[in-house]
Amino acid sequence: MIIDPIIRDAVIFASMLSLLTLGLTLTYLTTKVPNFAHGSFASIGMMSMLTFTQLFGLNPYLSVIPIFFIGGGVALMLYLFVLRPLISREASFVSQMVATIAFELILVAVLNIYADYFTQTFKIQSRGFLIRRADVRIFDQPGVFIAAPTLAIAGVLILFMVLNKTRFGVGLRAAIENPPLAGSLGINVKRMYTYSWFIAGGLGSVAGSLLALWFQGSPVYGSTILISIFAAAIVGGLQNIYGAVLGGYLLGFVEILGTRQLGLWIGPWMTVYRPLIPILAMAITLLFAPRGLAAVKWRGLFRSFGKGVGA
Amino acid sequence: MITEQQLFTFLLDILAYFAIYLIVNTSLNLEYGLTGIPNFGKVLAVAGGAFVVGAVPGRVMANQLGILMGYRAVENDPILSECLKTLAQIKPKILEGMDYIEDNAVVGDCIRRVMVNDPLLSISLLAATVGLAAAVGAALGFVASYPAIRLKEDYLAMTLLAMGEFLAQVGYLDRTLVGGTLGVFAPDPYGWLGEYRFMASALVILFVALLFFYYMRQVSLSPAGRVLKSIRDQEVAAEVLGKDVVRVKQKVLIVSSLMASVAGALWAFNSQSVIASNYDRFTWTFWPWVMVIIGGAGNYKGILLGTAVFVILRRTIDTYRYVLEPLIPFSLVWLDRLLFGIALIIVLIVRPQGILPDRPTPAIQKPYLRKIIETIRQQK
């Protein structure tokens, strides 16, 4: 089966963007602070995937498991050692945002130092690397083309099941929706927040690691797609995780397929303006549906359209 | 051992960096320290100013001199024909015409030769371009104020970050604006000073920086400054007391973006070229935030201190990295991010108001107040 390569790009990018957006929204729901270091969790995943597949010769899909724990661990560090002391000192939102920026500076520095060290010691390229060859082939397709959407959908389904069917999930939702009430009912709110930061960091790193199997990886890849993650999260509304997944898929497809379509229609110079797409998406969302896609009352919208047509 | 010359260059380098960051930090302090607008898109205005320098004056000069018409058109001009003669033999295409971006190096060389002999032209070009950059900066500030007066802190931070990144990325990807990945030359308005050019440039930047800094200090001590601080501390209360919060925020963003844009323009002139990838969010958004937070947001002395400490440390690490680099297995470029990232987190946790915290400014200065009390006592 021949598939247009740009479709592959779009499917893989959009699936992983939705996982990253999911993580960002999950942490935003707990601490109400956008994590400016979230993009770098994808970079952590990329560098770990490079190490596991190229150095240890591990199967890429087995490596995903340790990568989840690495990313989760780093997210825990950010939450426990940086944000929680700040929250307990009642620091302002801006201070907390600046703290995540400081953590981003540290992550970028550590990742780049690691990349330098990696190249010098093992003589393997660590900037602009392509490790598509490490991937397996499923049904004569690159494995990641199947694995990325599967993982994204499975991730959402599992999270849905956990949040709705288990005691832990109900506790987590309660802790997010009304922390004092949940606390008074004996739910350890802080522990619940810790879990959500761990899950968010882990998912971010897994997303990055699968992106590394298809796109050119580098220790700053995550920082460059941070804007897309923010845009997708705003499109999704920052209020629930299903909106985040929706926003991630929508923006991922629009960014890759939309740019190409515009390039074909208007001219190749249009493709330069790809960074305009996340910003436009943010602007349109904030103007017309400030609470995001998930909060739009679609049924009411259609009804009012119907009325308009009828009249 | 370092020679006197090296030391001088090093100090000049520190001075230039100090001055340029003083402008950007002054403008950030006006926004965040005094008014409480978390502008994470500082790079937008800085890049705007720099891109003006990359895109406008060179094109205007080239048009005025007629270089773009090709060698034939400028054959009679002694300076230009000298500059193009040899190249015209190798590359006959330039006889008929040149493209500003494609033949940027040649065009730049010709303009440089003309400007070296013409101080008046150089100075007026500098003034005109900086003025244009200021206007562009004010316009960008107006654009940035659109979300700033409508959104909450977290949404605003994300939106401004995206806006800042957008301009830098378009500059990087679009070849026609400022040459994309390769960059373009910037006309050198200090070229006629010969070997004193870097000193002149640093002094010009320092002069502008002190001017803006003095303005910011006066504002922060004035009744207008108290209005800004009231908006920062309790927006609703300021509104209740009849302050037009929307207009004030808009004005602050316009003025501060103007400052940042002038900084970008002066920096582009100082480095004689504009490469879009140098205008990223780390250099022009995150570093100013680090300096302002560590120094003490809102306090003008804190801004001065934060900028000085940061620039001296960072330039020293950068300049003497050849001493340390053999000892460690990675490039020292990343060490400053690591160190300042950790320092910033420690400051935020231990002393969130910065080294020199902001204090309420009395409506009347203390000596003056004492004099009034004295007069009242005497009257009794």
Task: Outline the fold blueprint.
The complex is a heterodimer of chains A (311) and B (380).
Chain A: H1 5-31, H2 38-55, H3 60-88, H4 93-122, E1 137-138, E2 141-142, H5 143-165, H6 167-177, H7 179-184, H8 189-212, H9 221-236, H10 241-266, H11 276-288, H12 298-310
Antiparallel strand pairs in A: 1-2
Helix pairs in contact in A: 1-5, 1-8, 1-9, 1-10, 2-3, 2-4, 2-8, 2-9, 3-4, 3-8, 5-6, 6-8, 9-10, 9-11
Chain B: H1 4-35, H2 42-55, H3 57-65, H4 78-90, H5 104-116, H6 119-148, H7 153-173, H8 175-178, E1 184-185, H9 197-221, H10 223-233, H11 235-240, H12 245-271, E2 273-274, H13 281-295, H14 300-319, H15 321-324, H16 335-350, H17 366-379
Antiparallel strand pairs in B: 1-2
What would your notes on this structure say?
The complex is a heterodimer of chains A (311) and B (380). By secondary structure, chain A is mostly helical. Chain A has a single domain (5-310), classed as ABC transporter involved in vitamin B12 uptake, BtuC (Orthogonal Bundle), CATH 1.10.3470. Chain A has helices at 5-31, 38-55, 60-88, 93-122, 143-165, 167-177, 179-184, 189-212, 221-236, 241-266, 276-288, 298-310; strands spanning 137-138, 141-142. In chain A, strand 1 (137-138) and strand 2 form a beta hairpin. In chain A, helix 1 (5-31) packs across helix 9 and helix 9 packs parallel to helix 11. Chain A starts with a helix and ends with a helix. The mean pLDDT of chain A is 85. Chain B has a single domain, classed as ABC transporter involved in vitamin B12 uptake, BtuC (Orthogonal Bundle), CATH 1.10.3470. Chain B has a two-stranded antiparallel ribbon with strand order 1-2. In chain B, helix 1 (4-35) packs across helix 13. The longest helix of chain B has 32 residues, at 4-35. The radius of gyration of chain B is 24 Å and the shape is globular.
